[in-house]
Target: Transposase
Amino acid sequence: MNSTGGKNGEQKNSGLTQQQATDDLGIGLSTLGKWITSHKHAELVSGSHDDKDKEQACLRKEARIIRKKRDILKNPPGLETA
Model:
C-alpha cells in the first residue's frame, strides 16, 4: 500500500503492510491490489485539472490560428474568384 508501488511488505499511512491489512480485513491480496489500483485511477481522474484547462485553451488558440492560415491559403488576398 505504498505510493511507490504497493508491493507486499511495504507500508503506507496505516502502518500496516498489505499482508497485514488483508488479514485484518479478511480479503485476498489481489482484492486489495485491485482496490489500490482503482483508488489511484480515481485520484488521477478527480485531481486538479488546471494544467489540462490551460493546455486545452492553448490548443484552442492554436487551432484558431491554423484555421485562419488555412482560410488564407484557400482564398488568398488579391485573388478574386469569378
